[in-house]
Automatic annotation (TrEMBL):
InterPro entries on file: AlkA_N (IPR010316), AlkA_N_sf (IPR037046), Alkylbase_DNA_Glycosylase/TA (IPR051912), DNA_glycosylase (IPR011257), HhH-GPD_domain (IPR003265), HhH_base_excis_C (IPR023170)
GO cellular component terms attached to this protein's record: cytoplasm; protein-DNA complex
Organism: Paenibacillus swuensis
This protein's name: DNA-3-methyladenine glycosylase II
Pfam families for this protein: AlkA_N, HhH-GPD
Keyword DNA repair found: yes
Domain of life: Bacteria
Sequence ranges assigned to domain HhH-GPD in this UniProt record: 136-303
GO biological process, one term: DNA alkylation repair
EC number: 3.2.2.21
Length: 309
């Protein structure tokens, strides 16, 4: 076993405490909290790492102490890959100052952003994990979705043992593809959901679908491509774009949570419809994803649970 640590400097403002509190609110099954650090495993290519992230700065001068453990030798190139993955996951290089400046003329949204200053998306660890978990989360509540996610992890992958503690590792496409529908049915997956998850994994494992090449495409092109896959609709792809790719200008205008947040913050008598949201959201571009995210957060300060995750 080997261990290394390094310092990571995100762009300011970056409120790591606010971001991690949100994770606690949604009960993310891959993260743990140990001695003040946010901990989870990362799969990069064929290697698995345990990464601990601890804030050593503040929102205006952010700094993270990163601890990396692995069963294999950790090379300098491995650390570079881990940092690159973490910067993507933590949206560490997004220019929030430009986002806030864009909304200065809107007194309502300026207040919302001030209330959640420094909050950023924490993305899923990779695109396969994001889409798989989004398919699992279709038409079920957050608690049961988390239960199904844990059962998939336990059924398909081997945990990583570090210093006598076992940490869950999200399975690779190949590991999920090797499962049978019956195995997931035994874990309380519906027949269709078992088929959707395993068939999606097989398309990735066999090379029919190359997720990484999607990063080069525009949002609508990605939506048009992925909705052709059985079990994947527009809502699913929008989640994928938001929480897998971190696309900054996505407007899920049909989302009930977003419409409720607009009604609440703007003091509307009725919930706005999708056309109203699209008309209002035109002025949010190129930051529609972040306006949506902050409006979701404004709905429930206590648990910070959005409706789409």
């Amino acid at each position: 076993m080997s261990a290394h640590r390094f310092e990571m400097i995100p762009s300011a403002p970056f409120d790591f405490e606010r971001m991690t509190k949100r994770l606690q609110g949604v009960s993310h099954e891959m993260f743990r909290y140990e001695d003040g650090a946010l901990v989870r495993t990362l799969r990069i290519a064929d290697k698995v790492y345990l990464v601990g992230m601890r804030s050593t700065g503040n929102a205006e001068e952010p700094s993270l102490d990163i601890q990396v453990n692995a069963e294999h030798e950790i090379k300098p190139s491995d650390l570079e890959e881990v940092e690159a993955r973490l910067r993507t996951m933590l949206t560490a290089d997004v220019d929030l100052k430009s986002f806030y400046a864009h909304l200065e003329g809107d007194p309502v949204l300026s207040k919302v952003t001030a209330d959640h200053y420094g909050l950023r998306f924490i993305l899923e660890a990779d695109l396969f994990e994001c889409m798989t978990k989004t398919i699992i989360g279709q038409q079920v509540n957050l608690t049961f979705a988390s239960t199904l996610n844990r059962r998939l992890v336990e059924a398909a992958s081997k945990p990583l043992e570090i210093n006598g503690t076992l940490y869950p590792v999200f399975p690779s496409a190949q590991e999920v593809a090797a499962l049978t529908y019956e195995q997931l049915r035994e874990q309380q997956f519906s027949q269709r959901k078992a088929e959707y998850v395993i068939d999606f994994a097989r398309s990735v494992a066999e090379g029919t679908l190359d997720l990484e090449t999607l990063r080069l495409k525009e949002d609508e092109d990605i939506i048009n491509q992925l909705v052709k896959i059985r079990g994947i609709g527009r809502w699913t792809v929008e989640c994928f774009l938001l929480f897998g790719m971190g696309r900054p200008n996505l407007l899920p205008a049909a989302d009930i949570g977003l419409r409720n947040a607009i009604r609440k913050n703007y003091g509307l008598d009725v919930q706005p419809g999708e056309p109203f949201v699209r008309e209002m959201g035109a002025s949010w571009s190129p930051w529609c994803s972040y306006v949506t995210f902050y409006l979701w957060e404004s709905l429930n300060q206590k648990t910070n649970v959005s409706t789409i995750i």
